[in-house]
Structure formats: structure tokens, C-alpha cells
Amino acid sequence: MASSSSHAILLHNRGTLVNTPKQYVLKPEILVYAAVLGEQPFIVGSPNCYQAPQPRIGETCAVTLREDVRYHADNPIQWPQWFCSEEPHLACVLRPQTTGDLAALWDEGDESFWQEDRSLGCGIGMYSRQLLAKLETAFNTTFANHKDNLAFCTASSTSATAPLMASTIETSGTAKFISQLHNIASIGLNLLSSTPLPFDRSFFILRILQRICIEYAALVTYEREFKKFVRLEAGPEELNRTSTADMAYMGCFTNNITMVSAFIAARLPVWLVHDTSAASGLNICSVGAFVGFGELVEADHWRTHSRGILYEGSQIRGAKYRNMRDYLLVQMGNFHSSAITGAGGIASRPPLLPPLPSTSITPTSSSRPRARKGPYPPRPQRLILPVHSYLPVPPRAWSSAFERVDANEARCLAKDMRPPPGYFLPRPDLFTSITSENGVKMIFSWLQLRPFVLLAYSTPSEVPISKRPRLGHQSWRQWLNDTAGAMEPQPSTSTDKKRKGDIKSAVLEFISNIQEGNENVRPSPASASPQWYGAPFDPQDATVWREILWELSYLAFRLELQDIDDRLSRWERGPRHQNTLHDVFCMRGTPLLRCDLGMANIGAMDLDWRRRAQSIWALKSLMEAWTVEKPEIITSSPPRDGFTLSSFADFEAGIAHFYIDTYFRIYGRAPILPAQLSHTPPPSRCTWSPPNTTSAQV
Question: What are the residue ranges spanned by the domains of the chain?
Fold first, then answer.
């Protein structure tokens, strides 16, 4: 049917309307505006607004993620969707804004706003200060009343159904969800503001941050203002059937007359879709053109290449939107909708290590004295803690526990069962176990490589820490030597040549993993002057040496803790697990992979034992879910009257020993220990400060 004849049919009964558009009460059966969808035999019309966007036609759809990290016509933050009872808040999404405090949430964030910093390496940089300032304003505006919103959503947990969760009937999950959205958005903004990254990673994080903020605002708006209408709980005095819709909101499509009435009363845009054959039975006040997908989605973005199909199925199922959300949330730390709203329980997982030796004094069949048939066994081997004036010092409980561990390799997993060998970062003692002159060259090399290497760990990803790249101790030494241009002894035998070839292959593979196919991302050129927090490195400044080696220790401990936890934990990933991991370092709301001198002597390394106790207890809670046999100190409850200084010292020593001993038995080597910085770094080199918390009873 041609559009002109369709328009004639639509207008045929216009004269029979009793009221003018400005006088009648808005009703689902009266369309104030309608349009024919081009060559498609459908009419889209609205009882409360003068616009007709193009709907997705058909019961099923295929959601495609494109290179601009958007879903276009299937994207609820870009285009009106069919009403979904599992995700009703999507009708409350704000339409794109070009001015005001929230405008940055729709900013394109292309490369013209991103600046490369050649002092950090090639292809590494950050967004401009102007864009970051606008993003911070949008973030602060979005979450200005977060505590009140959290309390409101928690108090409204008696409702019968809950958005966002098809599998639960408790709206308290909404409070958990907005809490986690706030946490992930904080991490995203923190990353963009503090971490140099390649453009594509910066762009991806920007898109995630924008979506989280927009969806958070929509959910809060729905809970506070519109839920009562959608659930038909609004009182007669609240129903508004004379005013057209507030076009600041996205609205939705639905042919459910009950929902249409609810949206009219709530002043949210709503559209019905009819076959043109039904035109003669419709009451239509005005006819115009429909708004196609290209009107709100730029053609250049519509043509961008596809990253893949994330969902195929019904248009009105919540799974469609959860799949979109999950893909992005996984990139911010392996979160997903069910984990965010779930309880984060303990899953079954087989033990990895043999049982711990018995500490009982009661003889058993395996512990009764037996006649010795050979020489006495050798005395337990001990781990050796490197010591140097530049090396950071572990807390006393950790260094004592380190030296008590039985380092007999027979206690470890068989080599073919161990995780991949190597270190995430060069060992701090690598720079102090050589001559002073070579140490300076090596530290110069590290400062040139540092921004590039940290890219491997500075961006949350769907790839768990246990799968991230690492290098052996000698490979790190070789890479640093090659960067410094140091002359190494030439291999004299075929074995030496093979070993050196294997080392170079490992380094090249490590570099390739960081680049992720983008060869434009490279370390700083050898001619670049080494920088430490924006200032030229002075090899005579002992405090700077200590800061550099403290950072290596601190980051390595954090990465190794996440690695072993990822391998051993039965705790399902979710907010409880993530928050506990953050609490070890007193870093809630901050990316776990960020490192700043302001983090020195905080969390498990705090100089105040009362504050440190909270982080050590978090570490104990984390390890309690590990699939190894645990001593009583790990499984016990907290003291009824709290810790004293003496009882906490014993507790901390036991926790430290269990961590070090378990790590040694799994990996066959000593872990990098948490360490304390011996001086207070200057404020100019501290951009992070701990969250405002009060000391809990310990």
C-alpha cells in the first residue's frame, strides 16, 4: 500500500472526532499522532506525543555490537524499545543531551579528545582534561543522591516484582544493583582519570561508564517516580490524563492497553503499532512522517563494523538487555547481572593440595613412632627474604612468617600441575642484587618500560588475572638489559643459545599480549628521558628508588593475591567477593589494578594495627573459601570481645603464614610480600586518598 493512500485511510474519520487535540482526555484508543512506516504495512501512533519513531518489527531480533561499542536500534539508551516487564526502567532512559551537566554521557569520545603522551610510550595516553572534567561533573550529578537512592530502593523491597531480575521476586536486588553500578562507575572514572591507556581501551571504558550512568539514572527515576504507575499503584489524584508526554524520556512501544494507560498517566512517551488494515478503526488526530533509525543514530556509526552478535531471541525478554549489559560489565571486572544481584555463594570445587600435616599431639596410625631405616631427614629448608636499603620492608608479622615456612620442594605441587611459572612484574630485588652502575641502567630501563608493561594489568578485562601474561626472572633481566643496551656475555654453547632464544621468544609473546594486535602501542624509545611521576629520575635520590621498588612490591603482591584467589576460591564472583578483595587494600571504588603512592601503608600494610586488622580479616575471609585444607585460625569466628594488640599479633602471624605457605606449595616459589614505605611521599606524587572510614571494633 502506498504511503499516500495509507495517509488517506488514516484521515478518513478525522472529522468524526468530537474534541480537538488540546481539549480531549488522553486515551489509548485515540492517537494524537500517527505515521505509516514507509514501505512496511504498519502504522505507529502515540496517544500522548507528537513523534513516531520506527520500531523493530518482528517477534525476534539479533543484537549486534558494533565497533563504536553501541547496539544502535536495539540499544535502550539510544532508541525506544518494546516494553519489557523485566526491565521496565528502560522507558525512563534520558534522551541524548548536548548541553548541561550530563552532556558528557553522550559524548562521542573520538580520538580528537584523546592525547598521546610520548613520555609514556607510543600509542599510550589519556582523554583531554576538558572531557575528563565534564565526565566527572556528569558522574557527580548522576550519583549526587546515591545514599538516599540506596535507602529508598531498600525500603521499597516489599513490591511483588523486581526489575532487572527475572529469577527473583525481591526488589532489594535493585538496591544491590544500583550499589554495584555506582561502584563500577567509580572504577571506570578512576581508570580514565588516572591510567594512561591505548585509545581503544580508553574508548571502551568511556562507553561502559556512559552506559552505567545513564542506566543508573533511569533505574532511580523509575523507582522513585514511575514504578507506581507501571504497577498500577498510583492514586487517582496522581493520574494525569490531559498532559502530553515528557519528551526528555525515551519511552517505549507496547500494544498492551493497560500499560498504555499507565504510561499516559505517568507522562512517559508510548507508541502502539498496528497493521495498516486496521486503519479504518483507529481514531487519529494528526498524521506525519515517522522518525527512522538514522535520525538518532549517525550514519557513520550505523555503518561501523560488527564485533559480533550478543543475543538472538525475543524482543521483549529481559535476557536481551542483560546480555548487552553483561558484555560491558564483564569488561569492568568479570561482573554480570546474576552475580551482581545474587548472594555470591560458595561453589563446590575439588581440593588442589594434599592435606596439611596434623598438628594434633595424639598419636595416629600415621604418626606413631617407627624404627628409623635411614639417616635423619634434612632440616627444613627456609625461604630467604632479600634485604637492601632500597627495598621496602614487609610488616614484621609477614617477614617472620616468611622465614618460618618450610621450603622443601617436596611439599609443593608436582611441576606439571603448577600454574605457569613466572612473575607479573620484575622482582624488586632484581635491581639491588647487581652492581650500582648496572642497577641504575636497569632502573632506567624499567621506567621506560613501566607504562607499557602496566597496560597488561591496568585495564579490567574478561580475561582473569590467572590468564594474564608473565615472564620468568631471567626473562625480565634480559628484557631490561636489552632495553638498556647492556652488553651480555655471548652464548658459547648450543644450550646457552637455546636458552637465550627461549627468553627472547617469551619476551616477544609478552609484548604481543600487551599490544593485542595494535603494533602502534610500544614502550618509550630508548632516547626518552626516564620519568617518575612527571619528573626526571635522579639516580642519587634514595627516596625515589624506594618508591619505585615499593610500587613493584605492592603491585606484585596484589596481582599474586588475585591470581591465587582466582585459582583456589570457591566463592562465586560477585559484589561480596569483589568487596572483600578490595577491603584487603582498603580500596573500595578504586580499580584493584591501580597503584598510587597515596596507597602506601594503607590496608594490610597500615601502621595502625586497628585499621590493619580490618584488612587482615578481609584476607582471612577471602582465604576461607580456598580449596585447600585450612588451619583453625582461618575457619574460626572473630573473638567475642574483639582483638587486643597481643591477640591480633598472633592472628596476623597465622594469616600471613597460611598465605605464604599456601602460595609456596601451589607455585613452588616464594610470593612477593606486602611492604611498607619507609617515608611519607610528597603530596605532589599522591593522587589517591583512602576512603573515609572509621575504625570498627577489632
Answer: 3-340, 396-488+522-685
